[in-house]
Amino acid sequence: METSRPGNANRRSVLFCVALCALVSLSTHAQPTLSSSFGFDHQFVRDRYAPLRVTLAGLAEPVIGSLIVKQYLDARAPETRAIRHEIARGSLGNGSFAATIPAHDTVLPLLVQLVADDGAVLASATETTRQSSRGLPLVVVAGEPYHFDGTEAIVAVNELPSDCWAYDGIACVWLTGPLTERSAWMALGEWVSAGGSLAVFSGSDFYQWDSAVVRALLPIEDPFVREAADGLRTLGGIPRSGARIVLSRNGQPLLLRIAYGAGTVSLITTRLRDLTPAELTRIHAYVPRARTLISARSVAEKLLDETEVMRPPYGFAPIVLGILIAGVVWAHRAARKHPRSTAIAVLIGVIALTVACRLYVSREKAMAYEYRVITNLYITTSFGFHTVSSAFFTLDPAVVAIMHQKGAFPMPADAPTSPRTALSLQSALDSTTLAVPAGTRPLLRSYGHARGGFTLTLLDEGFPEFRIDATAPRNVTACLLYADGLFYRVPPSHFAVSLRLTDLRQVSASALNGRETLLYRLVADWVKESAHWWLVALSEDDEHIPPTPLRQKVRVADVDIVAGGRS
Amino acid sequence: MRAYELLFGAGGYGGLVALLALSGTALALSMPWVRRVGEYFLFPWRPSLTPFFLVLASVATIYGAQRASPIHWLPRRQRTHLRSLPLQVSVALLLAAPLVMMSTLLSPAYPGRPWIAWTAILVGSIALSINAFAVARLQLHRGANVPQSVAAVWSVHTLFPLLAYVLPPSVQPLAAAGPIGASLAILRGASVAETAVAFSVPLLSSAIVSFAALGAIRKDIHAPRA
Asked: What ipTM does the predicted assembly reach?
């Protein structure tokens, strides 16, 4: 029997150690890799928001840096005309990062980069978006897959984003699987409040995803699972006020629909797999499509247009000019006889006039070259939807900075007609800068998570008494109450006291003033379908002039759309 | 030379009135006429400092050239005339000082720029008048047409540097050698090179030309009479 020699064992040990060291060194020198997924099921609508998921792997240890996404607006000058979003910053390790960014030009691929603080690009990935772009809003099926016509996006429920504005380009969300993520439900609720359309399929699986947030959205109260005669389990409950039974099966509601804010929620009382193809076709026909998300764009444009220009008075220049010419004419006549005293008088007069002009100039008469209006619109239901419309006008080309919520990147409200008309945006996590050309009026929109500053509390079950409260002192310039199909004007003096409808003055659409008409147009399309009472208020901040080098004028306005809630 | 003749003689009165009236009108028209932001889209006129300073630079240089052109035959009178040119041009631009002060209303972020531009126009106009005087004096001795030669000097001094704008960017600061280009560059936020060109070229040229002209006049004064 042959025994191994001690030299061989030593050699093996050395080889093992070398191999171990090589493995360790390989892991420490591993290259980070990035992968990304843009849109729902790699589909998105151009010039709308879309979710982005970036996966970072291969890092031996976290790096201090940021994740950058770049979209190029012009193939001829890609680096100078780009939109840059910073979607994560700080100590970044392996993992998944979600963000919602505007989808712009899709001709060039999306570039995702991991950039260290010293500017070195550690990893990079490109996402070809040319084939993923859609021209019209698409339907998202989340959970169990269902195909209508091949244009839908099929995603897993855990892929649903938690930013409501990610659903900007979505016609309808069919929720066919149990969704348990609260943040995703909140996003869906906010989106529906602002005009979205959600179709929920639930039967025997209801208790898997039941929660207070879910119940707030459903068109039925006190939901329960019941077993039908054919053994199929369906969801039952008492239809809420305003809910409609659209389709029935065996005498039981199959499809119920309710208006929720500016949007609708459809409940299909059984699971997707328990429906026949014919029933699904009928359901598809009856589930409405989402509206364009409600925005304060019209208010922002109106406020910008009516903003008073800060400028010197018209008469100032002609008056000074007249004095100067009169002085020269006088000096011409007087200098023949009294040349020395005339020269002294002219000198003193010119200096005095210059000093007078200087004193006048210092009285805040200077030109303002930049005007901006920031209009916040809040829809407060059980969810809080917040959108910001920012309107700008500058007389000189200017670089404008917009502060926003973390990751709530703004995008132009108007779809650009060409790469040349698109605005270049540079977004950090909570601020965006853009170059505004002179003489133009760019309008941007962004979204966020926030609740408005008003509450409408219905004090009694039958709603004869109610109360309107503002959480902070506000300069309310218009306030309307929608109740029982009618609009009422609410003076600010009626806040914070118990009211009855008889205390308020009913107004017709033709009797509304300018500000009230703006508010009326925001809600007129959808408010009459709602069973709620609604408060619509416009609060305007005083115009102010921030101490910036380029003299500017800023106006801030808040539009609150508040659903009445019981105390 | 009496003060009246200095300022108002030989067309000086009309020149001063024209300088004030034209530049003042340009300034008045440069002020915004709209009351609300939305009206900016109805009226194409945008408030800007540029028209005022374009007119001021053009008329001030014309005034400077005009003050140089009435050349007297006597060398002593020529010397007095040459020495008085900076004062004549300075008085004219001093009269425009209230207008320049008003123009700072249109430049609230950079209130110093109109004054720097005004200074550049002053220096450029003085240099132009001195150069025009030297050329006019030479033409007078040759018996050539003085007004035409002064107009040519004005063109070379004010318009010729503007041709630099059609050249590559590296040589475009040379446009600031003339008063119009200098004021435009300063209002825009001139670079160091442009500022240096705007002040050094007219100062150097006027210094050299005035020393040369004074030397020639001195020779004429001390020359033996034929």
From this structure: 0.83
